[in-house]
Design brief:
The chain has 230 residues and is of the alpha/beta class. Helices cover 49% and strands 11% of the residues.
Length: 230
């Protein structure tokens, strides 16, 4: 059975951006099921059309993309993946949106190929950002004890090995690099990562990096894993 293409909602107050993205995605067989010009429209459109992926501008009138992201990502089953659209890669609003559960961000001058790839990537459940990019945002904007820390402050459910994997993941190591560092099979590493995400109620590795810094598991200043008692 052939997998259905992603269903996408584009939320941006600029007509040219919405039209351009619709044309690019449509040329690759991806259906834009709705458009929105502000965050309130985006929240309503998500409820009506149930898209797989939302491309969400940060700065919009009436309700910005950050508040819209928070209202869309409530933890309910079947909710869409949100990708933030921005003109700045190191942006406090981007960081806040990632903390709220967005799966990554795209610069508005993204190439057509990257846009299509990004939509397909997040639709499968993967995070769009490499952990190393997320770490740059975290080191600039994270505050230990922040919102994500409050939601996921209890790391006691993790085993010592999972804490070790969590700390290395937050420093930007890929599964392959984790496997090499820990002398484990890559499939074992994937199992550890999946368990970490499940135990802490995290959507993906992007949120994992943020939580690791905000809980103090990893130092914002040095990027090194802190000593944790278990």
């Amino acid at each position: 059975m052939t997998e259905q293409p992603p269903r996408v909602l584009v939320a941006d107050d600029q007509t040219l951006v919405r039209t351009g993205f619709r044309m690019i995605l449509g040329a690759d067989g991806i259906d834009v099921v709705a458009e929105a010009t502000n965050g309130a429209e985006a929240v309503d459109a998500v409820r009506r059309t149930r898209p797989d992926v939302v491309l969400m501008d940060v700065r919009m009138p009436e309700m910005d993309g950050l508040e819209a992201t928070r209202r869309i990502l409530t933890g309910a089953p079947g909710e869409p993946r949100v990708v933030i659209l921005t003109t700045f890669d190191l942006d406090r609003y981007v960081y806040a949106a990632l903390s709220a559960g967005a799966s990554g961000f795209l610069l508005k001058d993204v190439t057509p190929e990257h846009l299509v790839s990004a939509v397909r990537t997040v639709r499968t459940g993967d995070a769009l950002l490499a952990p190393a990019i997320t770490r740059r945002l975290v080191q600039r904007f994270a505050q230990p004890g922040g919102e994500s820390a409050a939601l996921h402050r209890d790391l006691a459910s993790l085993t010592p090995r999972e804490l070790e994997v969590f700390g290395l993941l937050a420093r930007g190591l890929s599964n392959a690099e984790l496997a090499t560092r820990l002398r484990l099979a890559e499939t074992t590493v994937k199992t550890h990562v999946a368990r970490i995400l499940a135990k802490l109620g995290l959507r993906d590795r992007v949120q994992a990096v943020i939580v690791a810094y905000e809980t103090g598991l990893v130092s914002v200043r040095t990027g090194e894993a802190a000593q944790q008692s278990h």
